[in-house]
Structure formats: C-alpha cells, structure tokens
Amino acid sequence: MLKIVYAPDPILKKECTPLPQVDDHHRDLIKQMYEAMYEANGVGLAAPQVGLDKRIFILDSGAKEGNKTPLTMINPTLVSIEEKKVPYEEGCLSFPEHFAEIDRPDQLTVEYLDENNKKQILTTDGFTSRIIQHELDHLNGILFVDHLSRLKRDVIIRKMKKFKKEKNNINEKKI
After folding, report:
1. Which of 5, 59, 99, 161 is an S-S bond match for 131, by CB 3.0 to 4.6 Å?
2. DSSP line for 85-127
3. CATH at residue 92
4. How far, in Å, CA of 77 to CA of 80, rounded?
C-alpha cells in the first residue's frame, strides 16, 4: 500500500509532470491512492502526497458522511474560477492534526482526463471546489500552509519536523 508523505518533504514542493495517457499501471496507482486516502480518513489526495511526480489527484467529498462519491482527475486545468473568496478551515493528510482557515474562491470549472482517458469538464462549488483547489495546489508544489502568514507557516513546519523526527524514532525502535 502507498504511504502518505509528510511535510516537509521535497516531493511536496515539486511541480508534477503531466501524463500523456492513462494506462493500467496508472489505474492501479489510482486504486492504491484511494485505499491510502480512505485509510487516512481523507477527502482528497494528490500523487505527490504518496511520492509520485504525476499530475493526478483523487477526491471524495462525500467520504466523511459515508456517501462515497470518488472522483479522479488527471492533468487537471482550471477553466474558470470565481473571484470572490470565502474562508474555510482546511487540513491536509501531509500535515496531520494541523488546520488553518484559508480563503479560496467558492466556484470553479475544471477540465481533466478521467481514468479512461476521456476529457471531462466539471463546474462545482462549495466543499468539492475547495478540495479540487487544495489538490491542484499540490500538483503545482503549493501547500495549504503557503497560503498562511510566514509566522504561522513556520510554526507548523517546525512542528512537522518534530513530528517526523519522533515518528522516525518510533519506527527505528520497532526494528
């Protein structure tokens, strides 16, 4: 099973490469990404969060309510985005237990390939729109903490370095 990559990690700051087309190997990776996301109780997961340099992300805005509505986006591109921004508390699987209020537009239209290489266009708002923007940021090497003040970002990154160090110490003791 794929493992979630925790910040700070260089892969999370890298702009990902597009896929020329989706094949069975990519579909298997996408399946594994869903397994990792659901295991971590997430609603979105981008390829760099599992160490993959690919322009793929998955989301399931109904997962928290037990109403699974999985959606896979490959090579996503924003077609349009509302100008007015609304605040909402965000978290990230690569930043466990860290949350911050982020201002983002509420509505967008995105174009992408699905797992069957079919071009799709989706116009959405609310929670789904927010997840798409968050995951699209990941594909561009932007983290949710990059939307915060330098002070808040530095505090969270410092805590994540400590978290990773403690996690590594625990894993070493198990060996």
Report:
1. 59
2. EEEEEEE-TTSTT-EEEEEEESEEEEEEE-TTS-EEEEEEEHH
3. 3.90.45.10
4. 9
- Compute how many other C-beta atoms are within 10 angstroms of the C-beta atom of residue 111: 14
**What domain range is 51 assigned to?**
10-170
pTM of the model: 0.93
Residue corresponding to tokens 């808040």: 152
Q: Which two tokens stand for residue 18?
A: 């597009």
pLDDT of 170 reads: 67
Q: Write the pLDDT tens digit of every residue in 92-136.
A: 999 999 999 999 999 999 999 999 999 999 999 999 999 999 999
The DSSP string of 25-87 is: HHHHHHHHHHHHHHHTT-SEEEGGGGT--BSEEEE-TTGGGT----EEEEEEEEEEE-S-EEE
Partner residues linked to 80 by β-bridges: 109
List, by residue number, the catalytic residues: 135
Q: How far apart are CA 27 and CA 38, in angstroms?
A: 17
The encoded tokens of residue 29 equal 């990776």
Give the pLDDT confidence score for residue 172 in this predicted structure. Answer: 60
Q: How far is CA 99 from CA 24, 96, 165, in A?
A: 35, 8, 20
Contacts of 173 (CB under 8 A, 6+ apart): none
In eight-state DSSP terms, residue 141 is: T
